[in-house]
Amino acid sequence: MNNGQIAEVFENIAGLLEMQGEKVFTIRAYQRAARTIERLPSELEDMVREEKDLKEIPGIGKAISEKIAELVNTNELAYYDRLKAEFPEGILDLMQIPGLGPKTTRRLWKELDVTSVESLEESIKDGRLASLPRLGKKTAENIARQISFARTKSQRMPIARAMPIATRIIEALRSRCPGIQQIQYAGSLRRYEETIGDIDLVCTSGSPQEVLDALVALPNVVDVLGHGDTKASVYLSDRIQIDLRVVDDRHYGSLMQYFTGNLQHNIQLRDHANSLGLSLNEYGLTHVDDGKLEEFADEESLYERLGLQYVPPELRTGVWEIPAALEHRIPGLVEIADIKGDLHDHTDWSDGRDPMEVMVAAAIDRGLQYLAITDHSVGRGIANGLSIERLSEHMKMVRDLDDRNPGIRLLCGTEMDIRADGTLDYPDSVLQELDWVVASVHSAMGQDRQTMTERIIAAMRNPYVDVVGHLTTRLIGERQPIEADFDAIFKAALETGTAMEINASPERLDLKDSHIARAREIGVPLVINTDAHTEESLDNVHYGIAMARRGWCEPHHIVNTLELPEFLEFLDTPKSERMKVFLRHA
DNA sequence: GCCGTTTTCGGCCCGACTGTTTTCAGTCG
Q1: Protein-contacted bases of chain B (C-beta within 7 A)
Q2: What superfamily does domain A157-247 belong to in CATH?
Q3: What is the mean pLDDT of chain A?
């Protein structure tokens, strides 16, 4: 049973306990455990097998660690089964409908025998729901509306879709509201979660009502979910919800902190504030004894006032970062400016859109010191992969462009298929002519875990394979990742001196954050690549940087933060010796 | 259920909005 499945069990336990009226702190403990487990860099299965003490994980104590062990060892949990037996099947689905919490869901079940979305709809139609005490016509209408939303609303959307929508809304509000002082996205978008549930915007303005009114009046708003004095929520035709909060400029820091979250981070931060005799909310810090309010115009001063190192948004998961910030152990995370080269880029020689010259000019524009042109290998017929003959011409063109562009070092490269049997698309005699070889899985992605693991490690054992591209081949929200023993692959990477790619293409984000953290722990050299197929997608590097930051990476974990001379030294060293070079320059 | 430079027992984040209410419960983030 993998971490995602275990987390789901605890999430469900929390939901059922809520409906049972269990103590709120017990519920919260299960929710916290579920969230933490989702983000663990290592599989609990492995940790149990290696007899690691799970209680060292924050929020996991005796009871939950025993339940994890039972789940891992037997694939079942007696406690969970007993709990489930007390409720009708599918009741948790009802509680997923916005507006239906544990109390209401339980009443609908007990008083109206509603246990499914279908029977819920009937109870709305025939007026039974509205006739219950403390419910009413308006509530019934709202629930009916939420049901129809639930049918059309997309699940959490990939960050690549949410980011441009957020930017458009911000621009629209700016142009309509002269009173706006500051406006920015917060929430999961600012934390660079790979998927986004809704878009949270924070704003300061001399006239809050103007901004809130402007939001609900935007042309692509199809419904208003809330519209008060300081916040409003709307539903867009893009099938996404926008939450906007407006306060005065002098509260911007605490508002931004509050609205960036995540929930667990905020709970821990507020808990810590309490220990100092302070109470934290979105307006600032209140002294518990005399009620005096301290205000914060920026986040940095807020964290500092609490005696904490500043926590970058990408780290705010509520798992490890608050204790680290207290002890000033937050590392100096990698930034865009640290990236000196891009080592995975396509041109119109294969499936890229732009000619090589255009890509090179774009790379120079962005201040890169080196660029690897890595068009597809012959196996990718569909991507116009290069035959050995075309590859030879391709190399000539790269060398020629390199001569004519002294501002950048161009590398002859390939993105070469790792075939289903672990053999490679070009023979060694060809590979040794190339400067940089990205090896990727593009086919037979459904292989079983062991076959896939052996296939990838076999490729890594080739002395000319420099890096494994987009390891899991997932497309967020579209294609599941491969099944493989990632720990074994990372260990093989360290052993062979093969780098692992952090693919910054926002549809992929592959490696993902927890894998990055694990690879970093093991000591694998990492490379942040855009996999650009157009000149503008070179700008996607910020997504890769964010994933690396979420994996707590510093510049010295990332190979392509090396300056050109150091990188060339790395490149000129045989793979088996490369780790030494990497560590020396790190 | 978890956790401890106050604590192994007694705490546990905080406020906005809505609907159905005359003072607040439920839900959400």
Answers
A1: 1-3, 6-7, 11-21, 25-29
A2: Beta Polymerase, domain 2 (3.30.460.10)
A3: 94
